[in-house]
Design goal:
Length: 133
């Protein structure tokens, strides 16, 4: 229970693609530079520079939060898609001569929590895979 948020966040970051990791790294570099400018302005006691550097630092922190949220949503969608694909593949193997419509209908009867819009492309891919093998 302790540090569940941090562990979950690190787990999601580790599952992210290389491009997403780079996208996450850049805002941290910018925030570090902004923090250095803010520290310099505090040390020199330049009020106008303190205001502007604090604003830019705030924007950098918001950018980091936005990137983390985007990665979290992407990983969540990927996990959900994998769950649907696994369940649908099991169901497709049980059906005789599965078609996309038949597979979607049977799947939606069994699993009502999914929408047909997210199920349709997965059903097409599974039928295609089954026809090829």
């Amino acid at each position: 229970m302790r540090h569940r948020f941090v562990r979950g966040l690190l787990n999601e970051i580790l599952k992210a693609t290389r491009l997403e990791k780079i996208t996450l790294l850049l805002p941290f570099i910018v925030a570090l530079i902004d923090a250095e400018i803010f520290y310099y302005s505090l040390k020199r006691r330049e009020e106008l520079l303190i205001i502007f550097s604090a604003f830019v630092l705030f924007l950098s922190i918001l950018e980091i939060i936005a990137v983390l949220e985007e990665i979290r949503m992407f990983v969540e969608r990927a996990i959900r898609r994998d769950e649907i694909e696994e369940k649908m593949m099991k169901l497709a193997k049980k059906l005789e001569n599965p078609t996309v419509k038949k597979l979607i209908d049977e799947f939606m009867k069994k699993y009502r929590e999914y929408s047909s819009q997210e199920v349709y492309p997965i059903a097409c891919r599974i039928i295609d895979l089954l026809k090829k093998s």
